[in-house]
Each structure stands twice: as C-alpha cells, then as structure tokens.
Specification:
By secondary structure, the chain is α/β, with parallel strands linked by helices. The protein has 14 helices and 18 strands.
C-alpha cells in the first residue's frame, strides 16, 4: 500500500501542512465518497471531530468533498471516536469519519475512516482510496441535482450517552460514588460527565473547558498529575482519564495511584470469565503489554495472544479469532460485545460497575497482578534507519541474550510520532535498566552519526 497519506491510524500530521491541509481533506472526501457509493440510494457519511481549532477547517473541507460526489453529510460536532463508529452503524451510513489526532497536541490533526459496519478500514480499502486521492478535482463529480446535503444531528450526544449506559445492567447505580473524570479538553467533555451523573454518581469534571488549543495539554490519559491531585484533594473514590478522542482510558484509584490498560484488561478478563461472558478463554493484547499480565492470566487458565502495536491490529485479531476482550497497555480497550473500536467511556463504566458490585475500594478491585519491571524510552528520529546500524543491532542482540527467557525486548518505530520506542521488561530491574540504556545509547549514537 502507498504511504503518501495513510499511516497506521488513518491520516495524521501537523494541521495546515501536508498532508493535513484543506486540499487533502477535500480530496479524501471525494475519493472516499466515490469508493463508498453503493447502489441507487442516497448515500450518507457521518462526521465527528474533537475540539482542535483545525477541526473546523478540515470538517468544512470534507463536507465539500463528500457533497461534491453526491454524499449526504451528517455532522455530529465534538464526539468521541467510538461514538462516530457506533452512529455510523446506527444511522445506516455508508461511511464514518473522525477528525482527530487522538492524544497528540492541538497542532496536529488526523482523519480516521470507518466502514458501514463501524470498523476502521482495512489496509486494502485504504489503498483503494489512496489511489484516487490525487485524481483531478473533476473526477466523479455529481450532477447539480445529485449533489449531497449537509445537516447537523442535534441528538447525537444523547444517543451515545444512552448507548453507553445500556452496556450496564439497568438496575446498577453509581449512587454514593464520587468520580473525577478528566476529559482531556477533548471530544468527550460533555458526554462522559453526563453519562456518569445520569447513572447516579457525584461527578467532578476536569479538562472539560476546551478552547481549541488546550486539548491533551497537561490533562487527560497522557498527563495524569492534575487528575491524581484532584482525586486526592476531593477524596474521590475513583478518577477516570480519557484522551483527546476518548477511545482510551486510564484509571486512578482512591489513593491517586495509576491503573493502566493492562490492569483494566486483567480485571475485565477475570470478572467476565467468572460470569461466563468471554467468548474465548483469553484476551488479545499487543507486544507492549506487561509480562505480569500474561503470567496472571495463565494462572487463571486464560491465554494472552499478542499482536503488533496498534488497536486496529488487536481488533483484526479479535475478529478473526472470536475474542471479545482486547486492548493495549495505553488504555485502548476493545469490548466487542459493545463497540467496534476502543471506547474509553464504556470501558470506564465496566470498571466502575465491577467496583460497585464488589463493594471494595478501587485499589483492591483493580490491582489484579504485580507488573514485571518494565522500562520504555523513546529516541527521537525521523525514520527507522538507525535500527539498521550494526552497532544498534549488536546492542539489541546482547540485550535479548541478557534477558533470555526471564524477560522481553521490543524495539519499534512509532507509527504516529518521529520516535523509536525501546521497551524492555524482566524479573531483574537492574538488568532491564542496563539493557534499555545500552540500546538507547547505541540508537542516539546512530542518529547523531
């Protein structure tokens, strides 16, 4: 597949610079509209966005592209990525679009596409769209009478809130709980606090005042200190941190301690296994998930099947092998009984529900295993070429030998940022630290050279 536009998670880049320009957005709308024109019915596309300033520009450009090839556009406004996926199916749309760069700062933006089934597009379908993006602006234009229309869906937020609440038992109430929810000044700044309040909780929202520039800035799932402080200050029962497009979640317990995606997956796997809700005797995670999670699940008679990094690869493996729980350490948790992609709000509700049923504090309920010492460090680099260096290869080989069967080593270029990520874990923290340090030093030498 060509890589001029699409990366590991749609199209992403700095706003108003190639490829994230208004021209690209128009071209993507035209190309995707042509690919998803099926039959003689009025074709429709659902478009949501997060709260970045550039979202207005990209949204308007995509509306122009889609309507020019005859697609009707349903505009949702700021809405979580999983809400776009859900509403694509609910509204029987031919295509769904989320304008977001997830956990990145406001300067970046992106375009994610969903098929009529609510799943992210396959590499093959993205390649088909990519092949049409650079066609002339007159390719595939609709006749004047067949142009698409655009309209706002006023009840989109209420639809999604009701959907999220229905993932729980109707008799379950969050009454008596004090919950701090950090919305990252992003797409869920209205729906997440509203859903938890309607379920009976006392809700304190932070990161709920977006201004176009402050999405993910010192808040959300990638910057937890503000949430931890607020949980401690207000003596809250639990803190919930979402990211900019609310497809991931990190939990903070009543002491302000972080509960990452691995612990959340362990909790859900164990409770769902007890309730006979797992479709397979195990879950799916990526190569970055902690070895402690794998060992914990094995002790319960459950398996952990690993994929490459990226929630789309987790979802693909889940669909191909009939798993209904999967995710990433970073907090992308896919519960396919409910959603086709990671859903931070729905996952948070499942965690809180488990806490309510247990009658115990979050620190006891959500800490299911002791993680193996793990270190992740990033080396800034424009591409993965330093990994071809003989010095770097030697450091990696030496690291694998030192860890042997008592640990794991994962080195990979980031799919969304100009970084090479170095992760090692093992039973001996001194060895882990040394292995990572040696590889990072080799990489920095290769980059500098």
């Amino acid at each position: 597949m060509g890589t001029k536009y699409f990366g590991t998670d749609g199209i992403r880049g700095q706003a108003n610079a190639a490829p994230m320009t208004a021209e690209t957005a128009i071209r993507v709308g035209m190309a995707a509209g042509r690919v998803f024109t099926r039959g003689d019915h009025r074709h429709r596309v659902v478009i949501g966005k997060d709260t970045r300033l550039s979202g207005y520009m990209i949204e308007s450009a995509m509306v122009a592209g889609f309507t020019s090839v005859g697609m009707d556009v349903f505009l949702l406004g700021p809405m979580p990525t999983p809400a776009v996926a859900m509403l694509t199916r609910s509204l029987r749309a031919d295509l769904g679009v989320m304008i977001s760069a997830s956990h990145n700062p406001y300067q970046d933006n992106g375009i994610k596409l969903f098929g009529p089934d609510g799943y992210k597009l396959s590499d093959e379908r993205e390649a088909t769209i990519e092949a049409l993006i650079d066609d002339g602006f007159d390719a595939g234009l609709a006749s004047p009478g067949a142009l698409g229309r655009a309209k706002r869906i006023d009840d989109a937020q209420a639809r999604y809130i009701e959907f999220a609440k229905r993932t729980l038992n109707r008799q379950l109430s969050f009454e008596g709980l004090r919950i701090v929810v950090d919305c990252a000044n992003g797409a869920a700044y209205k729906v997440a606090p509203a859903a938890m309040w309607e379920l009976g909780a006392e809700v304190i929202a932070v990161g709920d005042d977006p201004d176009g520039f402050n999405i993910n800035r010192d808040c959300g799932s990638t910057s937890l200190s503000a949430l931890q402080f607020k949980v401690h200050e207000l003596r809250a029962d639990v803190g919930i941190a979402l990211d900019g497009d609310a497809d991931r979640v990190i939990v903070v317990d009543e002491h302000g301690q972080i509960i990452d995606g691995d612990q959340v997956m362990a909790l859900i796997a164990e409770t769902w296994a007890e309730d006979d809700r797992l479709t397979r005797s195990g879950i799916v995670a990526t190569v970055m998930s902690n070895l402690g999670l794998e060992r914990h699940l094995a002790g319960l008679g459950l398996t952990l099947e690993r994929t490459r990094v990226g929630d789309r690869y987790v979802v693909e493996h889940m669909r191909a092998n009939s798993f209904n729980v999967g995710g990433e350490q970073s907090g992308h948790i896919i519960l396919s009984d409910f959603s086709t992609t990671g859903d931070g709000l729905v996952c948070a509700l499942q965690v809180i529900a488990a806490v309510v049923r247990s009658g115990k504090p979050v620190s006891e309920v959500c800490r299911r295993f002791e993680p193996v010492p793990q270190i992740l460090r990033n080396v800034r680099c424009a591409n993965g070429k330093p990994l071809e260096s003989s010095t770097v290869k030697a450091a990696i080989d030496a690291g694998r030998t030192r860890l042997s069967d008592r640990g794991r080593l994962v080195i990979r270029p980031s799919g969304t940022e100009p970084l090479i990520r170095v992760m090692a874990e093992g039973d001996d923290p001194v060895v882990v630290e040394s292995v990572v340090g040696d590889i990072v030093s080799a990489l920095e030498g290769a980059v500098g050279g």
